[in-house]
Amino acid sequence: MKARSGFTLVEVAVAGMVLLLVLGVLAMALQYFFRGIGNLEMRSDALTLAVLEARKIQAMQPLPEPFSAQREDTIMGRGYSVRTSLTWAGDHSRLLTVRVFRGDSISVELSREFSLRNQEAFP
Question: Which fold has domain 9-115?
Answer without folding.
Answer: Pantoate--beta-alanine Ligase; Chain: A,domain 2 (3.30.1300)
